[in-house]
Amino acid sequence: MYRLVIAEKPSVAMSIAKVLGATARKDGHMEGGGWLISWCIGHLAGLAEPAVYNPSYDKWRREDLPILPESWRFTIGKDKREQFDILRTLLRREDVSEVVNACDAGREGELIFRTAYYLAGCTKPMKRLWISSMEDSAIREGFDSLRPGSDYDGLHQAALCRQKADWLVGINATRLFSVLYGRTLNIGRVMSPTLALIAQREAEIAAFEPVPFYTVELACGGMTLTGERISGKEDAAAIAAACEDSTAILQTVERREKSEKAPALYDLTTLQRDANRTLGYTAQQTLDYLQALYEKKLCTYPRTDSRYLTDDMENAVPMLVSAAAVICGVDAPGTALASQVCSSKNVTDHHAVVPTKSAADADLAALPQGEREILRLVSLGLLRAVCPPHRYAETSLTAECGEHRFTAKGKAVLDMGWRVYAAPSKDAALPDGLAEGQSLAVDVVQVKEGKTTPPKHFTEDTILQSMETAGAGEMPEDAERKGIGTPATRAAILEKLVATGLVERKKAKKITSLLPTQAGSSLVTVLPEVLQSPLLTADWEQRLGEVERGELSPEDFMAGIAAMVDELVKTYRPVPGAAVLFPSDKEAVGPCPRCGGAVTESKKGFFCENQECRFVLWKDSKFFTAKKKTLTKATAAALLKKGRMKLTGCFSEKTGKTYDATVVLEDDGAKTNYKLVFDNG
Fold first, then answer.
1. Is 109's pLDDT higher than 60?
2. What is the pTM assigned to this prediction?
3. Residues classed as catalytic
4. Contact between 414 and 429 (Cβ < 8 Å)
5. If you ran DSSP here, which 8-state letter would residue 568 be given?
6. I need a surface site. Which of 113, 140, 247, 555 has the fewest CB within 10 A?
7. Burial of 575 (0-12, 13-18, 19+ CB in 10 A)
8. By C-alpha distance, which of 574, 546, 581 is closest to 560?
9. At 667, phi and psi to the nearest 5?
10. What are the tens digits of pLDDT across the range 165-222?
11. Distance CA 417, CA 323 (A)
């Protein structure tokens, strides 16, 4: 008898096969040692398109909405059918006694496996491999402690609910808004709130009006003293004049010792943010590089929202730190404070991202640059996290000159601590020996002019931060998830916003910003609050957590989503005058005789772009087909411009002969008709 292991990707399957001794290569799987090892190639199947439920859904019509399947169907990707057939055969083999789910240890991995398992009609006992590293030792330990598949039934139900809910909102809202506004507008329960954040930021920047201000600076005693901000230029000049050739008297001198504790280890989001800020990588690039490192056994599992290791990993921390030092080409800290990075209570499904022990032996030069840089960044994160605090003395002083107050601040490092592995601080120390009552001759007086600055455009770094915290102040303290999306999904959401033309990346001075396109800004203008608010997706994640824990039934969760979609479709009304928000990219054939809007060509006719107008010239009009003529673009343009058009060679059904005539367009605001004019036309 065999035990069948199903991984998410071929590369992962090969690593598992090597550890288990399944070395015989077969068609779509490996075999040996009582094991069969195969793979899924990601999602083999997904929820079916609407037309599978009803062929009429192939057309986008408001009257068909909402589309709410009573029983859900799946379709297998054409390019993945062959591998699914292999899996189905393996799952049905009589000599297979047990199936092990070795897909990625998370919500999506559970969904990928279970979908294939159930579509194949399998009912064999199921076990779950749950590991955070692809190292051989981690795989062995995982197989030594396989868990019952039933332990993850709630996780699968939550994943399935998430998939169905996204389908319901995506299909219904996208069709609704696309039909109402005459162009394809992609809506999603995570996409749309993210787009709203970006559009709102641009609106704030556009509305911002800079306000000038002035500060007086005194150079004296080897340091710079700065005055308060002043709104009037003349007032600043008067203060500067009062300080010329004068003396500054120190009023207070305070020295305080402070410490800055080491940052926690990386979770996926903080790594993506740092990689964007320091390396310029997009969130998706960082995830892709990290996934590749995971599969090469050089980093631990990427899709995590935890920033700590589990308590039982404390003894392994020194070895991991040594590996990190080798990777970065630096000395390891004298003492690795392992206890400050280990906290099981702060670990969810997976611990923080760290390099593996075997990464120290990797040929870094052979890695692609992106993977190499991310591995070094992860390693630096570990080195910093196990260090003592950064300690420094901060000196702040106030001085009086010309009856005005000035201040200065400086830092002196006492112990570099974790900052030995970080960029050096730009803060300078103040001169020694400063004391209250001391007089300092003013060497130079300057008036500096500045302006208040608008909010900055979002970068991937800052949008990830905002997605993580959006709406947190409006959510209950005990909310399990706050913000928009999850660490595993945020990168894909940003990529989809760009791919669908709602957001664009623009680079200026080495910084790449995320900006809404005209269509993106317009879409936010017409979206109802329920689809813009981060509270929607946060509430979903909260309830999905309840489904996972068995506290909420999948049926109740889906009933709530269906009710929301039904209400949206039935109550939403188009924003008046919104046609101007979504200008067509189609060439105008001519002006609409009813409303003056642009008439453009589509597959079946020439339509007014104003959705409320409903003017159309049908290409298959019997008036033209009966005469064996075609309503061409040129004919439509002439009719719209002049109201008439000379037609030659018209066929007569009565006589069977051809004739010439002028066709005249008549429109009474509700109906469109044609008539023929002879004689002089």
1. yes
2. 0.82
3. 301
4. no
5. H
6. 555
7. middle
8. 546
9. -140, 125
10. 999 999 999 999 988 887 788 999 889 999 999 999 999 999 999 999 999 999 998 8
11. 20
